[in-house]
Amino acid sequence: MRVAHFIAWLALSVLPAACNQEPAVNVNSRYTVESIEISPRAEARLSDSLKLDLRKLVGEKFNQETVDKIVRRIRRELSGYRVVQRIAKGTNPESIRLIVDVVRAKREKDVVLPRLVYHSKENFTFGADGAIEHGGNRLSFGILTDNDELLERYSGIRGGYQRTLAGGRFRGGFVVESFRSQWNGATLEALARQLAGGTGNVPEIYRTRLHIQPDVRVEFLPGVTWSGGFSVQRFQTQFPAARFERSQALITSLRLNHEWDLSASGKHMVEAGYSLRAATKGLGSDYSYTRQFVNLEYGFRRGRDAITATFLAGWLNGQAPLFERFLLGNSTTLRGYNKYDIDPLGGNRMAHGSVDYRHRWVRVVYDTGVVYDRGGATKVRHSLAGGLTTGQKRDSLSFLVAFPLREGRMEPIFIVGMNF
After folding, report:
1. Would you say 144 and 155 are in contact if contact means Cβ atoms under 8 Å apart?
2. 3-state secondary structure of 339
3. Helix (H, G, I), strand (E, B) or coil at 121
4. Residue 176 · residue 144 · CB < 8 Å
């Protein structure tokens, strides 16, 4: 009974006081700033007034609002650099060290290989890009032949310009791409059947495609980025007669990318995104549609083990060109299938999930998904892939053998390359 009385007295005495307390602004506000650590080279580029304000922080109580203001000023003065603040334990009791990391954005002057994949049913996909950066300006250029991402193989060149401000939190620029398209026989036959039957609303194929897209990106919170712009696609259709058409759309997206390292449980990563493309006649487009796409990804890495879970979903309303339609059955979705066997014309609805596990040089992937036209028949498919990999990162070289599950046939598909 005495124990029960003591617990009741403690609850009545402590809880009301705790409820009446003001919430703490920052748990570090009770500590004194012992020192400011910033690289001498970065500090030398700062204005005298900013250097003075940095020194004034030493010996004062930590104030997050004041520190945030100073970090924003550093980002403005050091355009093209990434500025991150960190806090570490001081040498004296009740003290902390404020560390300001100033890192120049990666200068990419060499040719890099962003994509290299061989799919036994879809052949090679290859892309190489180069970039030159100077003072927050980035000029990029590259070549590409891709038979993995869209229904057609598109080959050509691309380039762009990007301007970075506020330490990388603001980016503005444009991309220009010019491609020539080649079509698989299964897609051509499906279009011919549609034309003969007078059903469906899938547009005809095109020979060439020119894409111009100016846009801006703003990182308004750490790891949270909004982008918006305008997409102009001009392409030459092939049937019933050669002519040029346009797809002009407003585009916007919101993305979250966050990583954290917990030494006890390993490294965690969360990535999420939503994108919208809206084309209307009012924008001078020959097509009117809205295309929405959602992706969610969670990654975990500990020691020699890594696991990634991914979910994708998309829905398309209205009549859109073939490059806007969704597909499954390539190097990143339903790996045990050929996209032309699933649906050679793609669909306007899609959902897909996968789990990717890697242990040292072993990799196993399970995929499931469905793609269809609204109001049409749906069939959920499953596939399993296994093989070898050179590492746990996404750009590691991998060799996989994939099989469809719950199907009468068991014809394997071989996939080898990187960035898939």
Report:
1. yes
2. helix
3. coil
4. no
Question: Can you tell me the distance from the alpha carbon of 169 to that of 140, in angstroms, rounded to the nearest whole number?
Answer: 19
pTM of the model: 0.74
Q: List the CATH code of the domain at 16-104.
A: 3.10.20.310
> Could you tell me whether strands 398-405 and 381-389 are parallel, antiparallel, or unpaired per DSSP bridges?
antiparallel
Tell me how far apart the alpha carbons of residues 118 and 124 are, in angstroms, rounded to a whole number. Answer: 4
Mean pLDDT within 3-22: 42
95-104 β-sheet, strand order: 32-37, 95-104, 81-89
Structure tokens at 344: 């050679």
Of 169, 140, 179, the C-alpha closest to 322 is 179
* Rounded Cα–Cα distance for residues 390 and 365 (Å): 15
Tokens of 196: 């003969």
Q: Which helix (H) or strand (E) holds 284?
A: none
Sorted by where each begins, the domain ranges of the chain are 16-104, 112-418
pLDDT in tens, 201-231: 778 899 999 999 999 999 988 889 999 999 9
Contact 148/121 with Cβ under 8 angstroms? no
Per the CB < 8 A criterion, the answer to whether 139 and 131 are in contact is yes
How many residues appear in the chain? 420
C-alpha closest to that of 354 among 365, 342, 364, 363: 365
Q: What is the mean pLDDT of the chain?
A: 86
CATH code of the domain made up of 112-418: 2.40.160.50
Token reading at 34: 């012992």
Q: pLDDT tens digit string along 298-355?
A: 999 988 899 999 999 999 999 999 999 999 999 999 999 999 999 999 999 999 999 9
The residue type of 204 is E
Tens-digit pLDDT profile for residues 33-63: 888 888 887 888 788 888 888 888 898 888 8
For 1, residues 6+ apart whose C-beta sits below 8 A from its C-beta are none
Residue 406 backbone class (left: φ over 0; alpha: ψ -120 to 50; beta: rest): left
Q: Are 71 and 85 in contact (CB under 8 A)?
A: yes
